[in-house]
Structures are given as structure tokens and as C-alpha cells.
Specification:
By secondary structure, the chain is of the alpha+beta class. It is built from 14 helices and 24 strands. 44% of the residues lie in helices and 18% in strands. A seven-stranded mixed β-sheet has the order 2-1-4-3-5-6-7. A five-stranded mixed β-barrel has the order 10-11-12-13-15. Strands 18-16-24-23-22 form a five-stranded mixed β-sheet, with no helix packed on it.
């Protein structure tokens, strides 16, 4: 089934799996263009004016009840798919029964905005209570709620049971779910649908499928009578209940139909529509005494085992049902005897309640015709009439097939026309004086282009050959046996003629006349049926043989096909596996070569980096030594010029030595040296000012210029030294980072190499195992060959020994004959074979010379 998700507004299928909790909507359909269809739901068109109120109200109420899914018949079934529609109709009762709640939307009823009292609601007779499909929607759900057009709650199943029972005629126990539907008789359940209507006439039968718990195929176009007939047959197959034959019974024991308006020959055993059960609401079914009494349906009749009784000159068959539980007053259906155990239910006569008897009569097995044949006036074009004129030929009509076409007395046979371009056939049996057996006439006709074309066949049959068997097997008779118009009698031969007497009334004259003359060819029905059976039997045997051969061939083909498929699958699997192995090996080889190249390159890069790392300290040491030497030279000059600066110069030399030993703290030391140099410069300027007072201006000026130059040179060298130290730190950090990266790559390469080695090792192991297996197989073959050779040698030796024993035996026989005094030729002359072959080998004897 499909359910509509209220939140997503999408249809979700639940085929072959349990559906989630859902609510269903029961409503009456408006015009098709106003209803929300399957295509509308699929395409997201939810704003149709004719269905917006019912859909929005249903969705809102479901959300209030904590439900996410709803089912609405207009949009949850794809009615263009006949298979889905058929399945939905057969499953609809179960879908309503399994729903969490069913909302009955009465679009024609309004209670006003202020309505709140649900205990005294009086429901109006809206169209919902007259619709055929809503009957199962009323009976199936576990929880049922009624709402008006504004979605005001009117009540649930139990609170509105009484007014609903008044409107529908359904007893309260079934509405309130106190009783199950199976407790109601078939006639009672049919009466609940007697006043209901549907848009399509066949739906009046299809809407009752779930109420009786049966399944049947939908066939729109078959008309109501055919659909309802199929429904009743299905019910008889599933339910043992005689009340299905009680149609036409009124609530007061008198049928609702008027006898004046019902005319015809046979009303048929079954009802034409649910309206025939309008007065059967109080009928209760009685249990059967044994299984053999159940109703049996066969083509053309219903077989019933019932007591027969006479009432007011009419025959009634007493059914196992009645008003209430009183079995002393069963309901009887009118029957009219035709012949043997065949009966019809005549038009204009209806079931009655049979008064109590001292004792019920014995049961009789009767066959009630299912054909419904109306009487027709001569001008009616729906009936073919055949007037039988057989008295002059000494023939008496005793049987007609179908039986309902003849009342048993009249010389006229009335047969309903099956319609345009339809074939029809009746069979007549005549008792004849002077004829070996009965005379059987087969009349065929076909209506085409407004005219009736007839064909007749005359045959002879014994009384044991039934017309039903002949009718069933007529199409299988030989062509040579058809078309004969005469039978032989003691007076001569009887000839049949069929002529159209009245085209308007479709009246045919079937005339028999006796002609003198020699006997003519006649057809015997029993012989033709025997020939047919022999012919069909041989064909059947041939077909069975062909079927057996065909089954065997199919089995062989299937077996060969299976073997071929398995072989192809195995070969394909092996090819795929081999291809995968080859691709894997190629990939591994390529990865191995790439890894080897990368490892080689990494080794080279590692050596280069190691060399560069070893060379960096030497360069730094050389630069440091050069700077220190220059600084020492400059300090020496300053020491010569200014003795007062010796202690400060020594301090700077100490700072330079510490910078050489501790590269990581060089920045701070150089900065400190710069600060100290600034202090020395200040002190130098102060000393220079004091010294100038004592010396001449020119001499002191020259000395000051030389000190400034030395100081600038020293500062420049310190700055250059700091930059070199900074650059060395950067190179050392980059070298360390590169070393870490190389080590990580080296580890990854080692892991890949180890994985590759493991895979190669596994492949080698598999190859070694396969070689070992092949070697073992070869050894087993060699051992078997040796064993075969030994056995052959042993057999040869045994045969040689047997031949030796044979030769000895022959010699003993020869010696025995010599002792008896018989003269025999020499052993060589008697063809004795002397064994001269070497042990283990033998020479084949010349069998042509052996003579024992």
C-alpha cells in the first residue's frame, strides 16, 4: 500500500513490509475533477477546491492524534494500473481494519460552530450512508469517529451506534464490535447493502468482497448480474450457509417483489443484486449436520441436499436458516420439478417460512438450475423459438438440453439469444418406435448481420448416453459424423428438415418425415464418443510422450546450461583473479623500483646534507677567528694609544671569547658589548677633553680623529659579526628541519619497503606451495605408475605360472594315456605349448594350435 506522509507531502510505498501507524479517511466522492487524484499527489498539487477542506482537516486531525501517515482512497491508489487497482480492492477491508483510526467526513452535514454535545447527536441520512463502499468502511475499522463539514467531532462508533443502526439497518452488536461479522448470516449481510448504490454497477458486488472475507478479480464491463453471480459463487466456496438462497424473502414472510411484474420460466438459483436480500435482515443460519449437506456449485446448477415439502400445492426446499434461532420454522424456497432430480426456481414465487411439522421429511439431493430465462412474446427478438413437429414420424420429445429451455409439455422450445455473432446450440432427444435407440438432434444457429443461420445433425443414441456429455464433447466429434439428416427405422428412414417459419418472431419449424426406401447411413453417438475417446487417448499418449521427451530435453539443456554457466563463471573468476594478481605484481614491482630510486636519492641527499652540516662549523670558526684577530689588533692599537682603556679592551676580548664558545647567547653578548662600547666612547670623550687642556690643539685633534676612526671600524665589525651569527642560526635551523623531514621520509620508505617485501614473500610462498603441490602430484602419479607396472609384472608372472601348470597338466594327461596303452602323437604334434619365456615375461600362445 501507499501512505501519504503529512509532513513531507509525499507518497511513500510500503510493499512487502509492515506499514507504520496511519489514519484513513472515509468520505463520499464528488466529481472526479474536484477530487485529489494520484497524479495530483505525485506532482504536489494539493490546492484543489473540491478536496482542500477534507484533506487539510484529515491531515490536521491526524497530527493531533500523533500520526504522521494517512491513507485516502482518491490519491493513494494508481487507478490507471489495473493490477494495483485489483489488489487494492481486495485489500481495502484489511487496510481499514488495520488503521489506527478512521475519520468519517460528512461533507453535507454541519452542526454549527458551537456544537459540543456528542452524546445526543442525531445524524442525518446523508449520502455517506447510501454509498456502497462506505459499508465496509463502517464495519472494518477498530476506532471510528464521525466529523461534520467543519471537522467538528460528532461522536465515535459507540456513541452514535444507535442513530447509525437506524439509518443502515445494521444491528447494534455488529456496529459496536460486540459481535464479529462472521456471526451474521450471508443473507443478513447482503441485506445491509440492499439499499446502497455505486457509480459503477459492478462495484455494488466488488464492495462486498471484504465483508465476506473473499478475494476475486475485478472485471469492469461484465455488468452487475455477472459480477454478483461470481461473488455468490465465491461465497459458497468459502462459507457454508444456506441463507444465500433465501433471497426474495420479506420481513413479514412475503417477498418485496410483485408477482404481477415477474414473468418467465426460471428465476435462477442465485440473486441478481443485493437488493434481492432487502427483507432478509432477520435471517439466521443454522449449523449443518454433516459435510455432505453443503451447497455445491457446478456449471449450470447448484446441488443442494434439502428436505422437500408441499405447501399450498407448491414444492419448497427447506433451507438451514430461519427467522431467529427457531429451527422448527425454517425458510423454504419455491422449486418446480423438471425431470429426474432437476428443479428450477420459478418466477413470481418467493421463499416462505415453513410451519412446524411433526417431523421433517428426509433430505433429497436436488439440482437447481442457475439459468434465468424470461418468457418472451413472439415479437421479442431476444428469443429463438423452435416448434417441434415429430408426431407423424412416431417420435416423442423426452429431453432437451439445456433443460430450462423446455417446460416439459409444450411443443415449442424457447432459447434466449446470446447476442450478435454468437453461436448457440440445443440438443433434443426423441423416443422412437422402430428405431434402434433414441433419436438425438443437435440444432446449431448463429445470428449474424440480422439473420439466423442454422445447421442440424441427426444421430442415434442409447438411453445411457447423456445429452450433457454429448454437448460437452460435440466439438471433438469427427467431421464425417456431422451433417447427417436421416436415421433408419422399420418403416424406412426418417428425415429431418429445419425451416424458418417467421423471421420476425425467429420461429423455426423442426419437422420429421418418414420416407420409404433402402437404409441410409446413420451416426451412432456412443460409437462416435468411443472413437473420440480413442483418438483423444492416442493423442494424449503421444502428447505425454512428447511432453516427457521435452521435459527430459529441457532438463538436459538446463543441466548443460548450468554446467556451462558454472564453467564460464569459474573461468571468468580465474581470469579475473589471475589478472588481479598480475596487475598487483606489476604495481608492486613499479612501487619497488620507485622506492629503491627514492631511497638512493635520499641517501645521496643525506650525504650532501651531512657534508654541509660538517662544513658549517668550520666556516663559522674561520669567520670568528678572523674577527677576533682584527679586534685584537685594533685593541692593541688602542692599548698603545690609551693605557687607561686596557681593562675595558680586555673585557671586550673576554666577551668575544664567550661569544665563540656559546653561539646561542651571542646576540645578548654583542648587545652588551655595544652598550659597553658606548660607555667607553663617553669616557674616552671625557678623557679627551681633559687631555686637550694639557696638549696642543692640533696634536689632540689628530689623536681624537684616529680614535673615532678606530671606534667606527670596531662597531662595523661587530655588526657584521652579528649578521653572520644570525645567518648561521637560520641555516642551522633549516638544516635541522630538513634532517627531520628526511628521517620521516626514510621511516615511511622503510615501512613501504617492508610491506612490499611481505607481499613479495607471500607471493613467493604461494608459488612455492603450488610448486610443492605439483611436485607431490607428480610423485603420486609416478607412484601410481610404479604400482601399475608392478601389478602388470605380477599379473604376467601369474599368467606364466598358470600356463606352466597347464603345460604340466597336459603332460600328465599324455602320460596317463600312455599308461592306458593308447597310442598318442608326440606332445609337440598335439600342439602342447612349452613355456620358455623368462620370468616376469611371457610369450603369447598360438591359440590355433592348442588341442587338448
Amino acid at each position: 500500500m501507499r501512505l501519504l506522509n503529512i509532513k513531507t507531502r509525499e507518497l511513500e510505498p510500503f510493499f512487502g513490509k509492515p506499514a507504520p501507524p496511519y489514519a484513513v479517511l472515509s468520505h463520499t466522492w464528488g466529481r472526479d475533477e474536484d477530487e485529489l487524484s494520484f497524479d495530483d499527489a505525485r506532482d504536489g498539487r494539493w490546492d484543489k477546491a473540491g478536496s482542500k477542506a477534507k484533506f487539510d482537516g484529515c491531515a490536521a486531525q491526524a497530527l493531533k492524534d500523533g500520526l504522521v501517515y494517512i491513507w485516502i482512497d482518491t490519491c493513494c491508489i494508481d487507478k490507471t494500473n489495473s493490477v494495483e487497482l485489483n489488489e487494492a480492492i481486495n485489500s481495502m477491508f484489511r487496510w481499514y481494519e488495520e488503521a489506527r483510526v478512521c475519520y468519517v467526513y460528512l461533507a453535507e452535514f454541519s452542526t454549527g460552530d458551537g456544537f459540543r454535545n456528542t452524546s445526543s447527536v442525531n445524524l442525518p441520512p446523508t449520502s455517506w450512508f447510501r454509498r456502497g463502499w462506505t459499508l465496509q468502511e463502517l464495519l472494518a475499522p477498530r476506532e471510528l469517529r464521525f466529523y461534520d463539514q467543519s471537522w467538528n467531532l460528532l461522536g465515535d462508533r459507540r456513541t452514535v451506534a444507535k442513530p447509525v443502526s437506524t439509518l443502515t439497518g445494521i444491528p447494534l452488536p455488529f456496529l459496536a464490535k460486540y459481535k464479529q461479522l462472521k456471526d451474521a448470516s450471508v443473507a443478513q449481510r447482503m441485506s445491509w447493502a440492499s439499499t446502497r448504490v455505486t457509480k459503477r454497477e459492478e462495484d455494488l458486488a466488488y464492495c462486498l468482497i471484504g465483508i465476506f472475507g473473499i478475494s476475486m478479480a475485478m472485471n469492469y464491463g461484465e455488468r452487475l448480474t455477472k459480477a454478483f453471480d461470481r461473488l455468490q459463487r465465491k461465497i459458497m466456496e468459502e462459507i457454508e450457509d444456506d441463507s444465500i438462497l433465501a433471497w426474495g424473502f420479506g420481513s413479514n414472510g412475503i417477498s418485496r417483489a410483485s408477482a404481477e411484474t415477474a414473468t418467465g420460466l426460471s428465476a435462477g438459483a442465485l440473486a441478481q443484486s443485493p437488493s434481492d436480500f432487502a427483507g432478509c435482515g432477520g435471517i439466521v443460519a443454522f449449523p449443518r449436520a454433516n459435510f455432505s449437506e453443503r451447497l455445491l456449485f457446478s456449471p449450470g446448477f447448484i446441488q443442494a441436499t434439502v428436505p422437500l415439502t408441499e405447501l399450498d400445492g407448491a414444492t419448497f426446499g427447506m433451507l438451514r436458516c430461519g427467522l431467529g434461532r427457531d429451527k422448527q420454522k425454517p425458510i423454504g424456497i419455491p422449486l418446480r420439478h423438471e425431470q429426474q432430480n432437476w428443479y428450477i426456481r420459478p418466477h413470481g414465487e418467493h421463499p416462505r417460512e415453513i410451519p412446524a411439522h411433526d417431523g421433517l421429511p428426509d433430505c433429497s439431493t436436488v439440482r437447481i438450475s442457475t439459468a434465468c430465462i424470461q418468457s418472451a412474446s413472439p415479437e421479442t427478438d431476444s428469443v429463438h423459438q423452435f416448434y417441434i413437429n415429430s408426431f407423424a414420424a412416431g417420435l416423442e420429445l423426452i429431453e432437451v438440453h439445456p433443460r430450462v429451455c423446455w417446460d416439459g409439455k409444450s411443443p415449442t422450445i424457447q432459447v434466449p439469444s446470446p447476442g450478435t455473432s454468437a453461436d448457440s446450440m440445443i440438443l433434443l432427444r426423441f423416443a422412437a418406435n422402430g428405431v434402434l435407440g433414441d433419436v438425438v438432434v443437435v440444432l446449431e444457429w448463429k445470428d449474424e448481420d440480422g439473420k439466423t443461420h442454422t445447421q442440424s445433425h441427426v444421430m442415434v443414441a442409447d438411453r445411457l448416453t447423456g445429452l450433457t456429455d454429448l454437448s460437452r464433447n460435440f466439438s471433438y466429434l469427427r467431421k464425417e459424423a456431422l451433417g447427417w439428416q436421416t436415421v433408419n427405422s422399420i418403416q424406412g428412414h426418417i428425415r429431418l428438415t429445419v425451416e424458418l417459419e417467421d423471421e420476425t418472431a425467429r420461429l423455426f419449424l423442426v419437422d420429421f418425415a418418414v420416407h420409404e426406401g433402402p437404409a441410409e447411413m446413420e451416426v451412432n453417438v456412443a460409437m462416435e464418443l468411443s472413437l473420440m475417446q480413442m483418438r483423444l487417448g492416442s493423442k494424449l499418449e503421444k502428447l505425454q510422450e512428447e511432453n516427457a521427451e521435452l521435459r527430459k530435453a529441457i532438463a538436459d539443456l538446463q543441466r548443460n546450461n548450468q554446467l556451462l554457466v558454472e564453467a564460464q563463471a569459474s573461468e571468468k573468476k580465474e581470469d579475473v583473479e589471475m589478472q588481479d594478481v598480475e596487475e598487483r605484481v606489476a604495481i608492486l614491482e613499479k612501487e619497488k623500483m620507485d622506492l629503491q630510486g627514492k631511497v638512493t636519492q635520499l641517501e645521496k641527499d643525506k650525504v650532501v646534507l651531512q657534508n654541509e652540516a660538517l662544513q658549517q662549523p668550520e666556516v663559522l670558526a674561520e669567520g670568528t677567528t678572523s674577527v677576533l684577530s682584527q679586534m685584537g689588533a685594533q685593541m692593541a692599537i688602542l692599548e698603545k694609544e690609551k693605557m687607561a682603556l686596557q681593562e675595558r679592551v680586555s673585557f671586550m676580548e673576554q666577551v668575544a671569547v664567550e661569544a665563540t664558545s656559546e653561539l646561542n647567547t651571542m646576540r645578548r653578548q654583542v648587545s652588551k658589548a655595544q652598550q659597553q662600547n658606548s660607555s667607553l666612547t663617553t669616557m674616552y670623550l671625557a678623557l679627551k677633553a681633559d687631555h686637550d687642556k694639557a696638549r696642543a690643539a692640533l696634536a689632540s685633534r689628530d689623536l681624537g680623529d684616529q680614535e673615532d676612526a678606530n671606534k667606527r671600524a670596531l662597531q662595523k665589525q661587530v655588526v657584521q659579526f652579528r649578521e653572520e651569527l644570525r645567518e648561521a642560526d637560520k641555516q642551522r635551523s633549516a638544516l635541522k628541519a630538513r634532517t627531520v623531514e628526511l628521517e620521516a621520509e626514510n621511516v615511511s620508505l622503510k615501512r613501504k619497503a617492508e610491506t612490499l617485501a611481505l607481499e613479495v614473500s607471500e607471493i613467493q610462498h604461494m608459488s612455492d606451495h603450488m610448486r610443492m603441490t605439483i611436485g607431490q602430484a607428480k610423485e603420486q602419479v609416478s607412484s601410481m605408475n610404479r604400482r601399475v607396472a608392478e601389478l602388470e609384472d605380477k599379473i604376467a608372472r601369474q599368467e606364466a605360472a598358470a600356463e606352466d601348470r597347464t603345460a604340466n597338466l597336459r603332460r600328465q594327461i599324455y602320460d596317463l594315456r600312455e599308461q592306458l596303452g593308447r597310442t598318442e602323437p608326440e606332445p609337440r604334434q598335439r600342439g602342447i605349448w612349452h613355456v620358455t619365456a623368462a620370468p616376469g615375461r611371457r610369450s603369447p600362445p598360438d591359440r590355433s594350435r592348442l588341442n587338448i
